[in-house]
């Protein structure tokens, strides 16, 4: 933590004990020692209270929500200032999260209400959570047995960029679903995006599904900024939640997009681009989650409670960090953003085969369930091939082997495949199995995960 923090409102008394405190304790106490973020939160609260009278929300529920939320922000911020209560500060973070969701829950009738709550929600989370959790922690940055630190700013940068891409795409589609615009960008599939956004599947959600996606991407981006370069061991809880939002929830989102041609009968360009961004986010996030999991396992093996280690984090001797003589420097560079990820030509070919399968029904005139199978399995091949570009997840490439076998068999047993498409399936399936077996290069070390990352049958 920088020295000038001592001049912050309220002072920084107690800094001399930082080295003896657990990371979780320090983060809980920090809002009571650095008080200046509470003042912009109070201003944001006043802004929210005034907003319904200024922007004309045309919704009683949205107006009440903003007035109540603004009042809560002020009360909780004043509680931090007067009572030195760190919990009150983090409670404001949940108010910020509600502000992101409120326009969707109440189907805000005006774009001003949607944009206002979204921006204020982001600022509230920034001041109540990101700013007060930015302190530098002491101790090692590289996990035991690893050649690099998976939590550096450079490592997080491409994840944040991919999240921003998904956020802006989803916000654009949400504006269409909420009725703020009649235009939605779709350069390739005609009315495809409109068909997806107005489909019965989309209407099954009680709120705008595109808007919910925008909230998820916003949370991912904000969590990408949270914590210092040691957060894999100082904030296991945060890395866990970040991993849940990006990996399983991201995978479910990708599966829903893949199913669009089957459920809706249309593709959506922005949905596909968002899914591609999410795939790279998954491949780039796994390493940090893995390092956190190894740290928690080590702490429990040393006799510490999993619950305590999960919330409070911890450290270990600097001499045990990294790999002797083979640890990368934390110095930021372009390529350091992609440590933990490599792209063997085998996986490039597999990805190309998946894309070709997705396009082949239109090329060969395949119809019916054969066309559905080709598009679905092709998208799955792309999904698993991109995820396998992450070195810790390289073993995922083997999922393409049974998919390749199905590609060979499917045209013979499913209706709608012309002869040329049948033999195309045979060729693509056999080639996919062949290129899914080699492992490719693994450049880095991942501690106790090395045996899995480097697994190969040849």
TrEMBL record:
Keywords attached to this entry: Disulfide bond, Membrane, Oxidoreductase, Quinone, Redox-active center, Transmembrane, Transmembrane helix
Q: Does the keyword Cytoplasm apply?
A: no
| One annotated Gene Ontology cellular component of this protein | membrane
Localization per Swiss-Prot or TrEMBL? Membrane
The UniProt entry lists membrane topology as: Multi-pass membrane protein
Query: Per its UniProt record, what InterPro entries does this chain match?
Result: SPW, VKOR, VKOR_sf
Domain Vitamin K epoxide reductase, first and last residues per copy: 158-285
| Gene Ontology molecular function | oxidoreductase activity; quinone binding
Primary location class: membrane
* Segments of this protein annotated with the region Disordered: 1-24
Show the stretches that span the lipid bilayer.
61-82, 89-108, 114-136, 157-180, 204-225, 237-258, 264-286, 343-364, 370-388, 395-414, 420-437
What region holds the SPW repeat-containing integral membrane domain? 36-128, 348-436
| UniProt key word Disulfide bond | yes
Instruction: Please report which protein family the annotation says this sequence is part of.
Output: Belongs to the VKOR family.
Name the record gives this protein: Vitamin K epoxide reductase family protein
């Amino acid at each position: 933590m920088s020295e000038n923090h001592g001049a912050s409102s309220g002072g920084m008394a107690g800094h001399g004990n930082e080295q003896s405190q657990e990371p979780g304790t320090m983060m809980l106490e920090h809002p009571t020692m650095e008080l200046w973020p509470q003042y912009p939160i109070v201003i944001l609260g006043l802004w929210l209270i005034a907003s319904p009278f200024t922007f004309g929300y045309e919704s009683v529920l949205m107006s009440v929500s903003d007035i109540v939320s603004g009042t809560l922000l002020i009360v909780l911020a004043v509680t931090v200032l007067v009572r030195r209560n760190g919990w009150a500060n983090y409670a404001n973070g949940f108010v910020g999260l509600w502000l992101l969701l409120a326009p969707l829950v109440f189907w805000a009738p005006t774009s001003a209400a949607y944009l206002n709550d979204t921006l204020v929600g982001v600022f509230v989370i920034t001041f109540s959570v990101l700013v007060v959790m930015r302190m530098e922690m002491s101790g090692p940055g590289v996990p035991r047995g690893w050649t690099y630190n998976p939590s550096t700013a450079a490592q997080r940068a491409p994840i944040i960029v991919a999240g921003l891409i998904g956020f802006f795409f989803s916000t654009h589609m949400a504006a269409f679903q909420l009725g703020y615009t009649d235009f939605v960008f779709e350069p390739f599939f005609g009315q495809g995006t409109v068909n997806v956004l107005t489909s019965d599947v989309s209407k099954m959600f009680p709120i705008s599904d595109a808007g919910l996606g925008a909230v998820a991407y916003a949370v991912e981006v904000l969590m990408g900024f949270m914590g210092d370069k040691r957060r894999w061991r100082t904030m296991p809880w945060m890395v866990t939640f970040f991993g849940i939002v990006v990996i399983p929830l991201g995978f479910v989102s990708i599966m829903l997009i893949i199913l669009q041609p089957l459920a809706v009968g249309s593709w959506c360009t922005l949905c596909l681009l968002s899914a591609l961004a999410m795939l790279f986010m998954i491949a780039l996030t796994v390493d940090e989650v893995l390092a956190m999991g190894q740290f928690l396992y080590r702490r429990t093996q040393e006799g510490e409670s999993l619950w305590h280690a999960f919330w409070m984090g911890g450290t270990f001797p600097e001499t045990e960090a990294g790999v002797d003589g083979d640890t990368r420097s934390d110095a930021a560079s372009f390529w350091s953003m992609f440590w933990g990820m490599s792209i063997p030509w085998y996986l490039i070919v597999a990805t190309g085969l998946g894309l070709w399968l997705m396009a082949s029904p239109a090329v060969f005139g395949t119809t019916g369930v054969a066309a559905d199978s080709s598009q679905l399995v092709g998208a799955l091949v792309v999904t698993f091939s991109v995820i396998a570009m992450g070195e810790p997840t390289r073993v995922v490439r083997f999922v393409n082997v049974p998919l390749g076998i199905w590609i060979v068999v499917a045209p013979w047993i499913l209706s709608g495949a012309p002869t040329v498409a049948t033999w195309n399936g045979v060729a693509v399936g056999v080639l996919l199995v062949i290129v899914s077996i080699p492992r490719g290069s693994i450049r880095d070390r991942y501690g106790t995960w090395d045996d899995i990352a480097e697994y190969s049958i040849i």
